[in-house]
Design brief:
Elements lengths: L10 H8 L2 H23 L13 H16 L11
């Protein structure tokens, strides 16, 4: 038996995932969140260095990207919101 063609990691499935709308939406959300994180650092950030997240642009960018990821992949963004 040849199990190579029966896996979900076949090139067809990977190519479908790469061109899927879900991946593009997620990457766009991370990119926008990262940009907003940097803008937060630039305009509002902590100049004294006491704030661990906003005292460095890297921390703000990472946190913004994580927020963008969470917003684009939340159940409510897919229409499965249960209140």
């Amino acid at each position: 038996m040849n199990y190579v063609n029966e896996t979900n990691d076949s090139p067809k499935n990977i190519k479908k995932f790469i061109v899927s709308v879900a991946l593009k939406k997620t990457l766009l959300g991370v990119l926008i969140g990262s940009m907003l994180g940097f803008l937060y650092y630039y305009f509002i950030g902590c100049s004294s260095g006491a704030c661990t997240i906003t005292s460095s642009p890297y921390g703000s960018i990472i946190i913004g990207g994580i927020f963008g990821l969470l917003v684009t992949n939340s159940p409510c963004s897919r229409g499965n919101c249960k209140v």
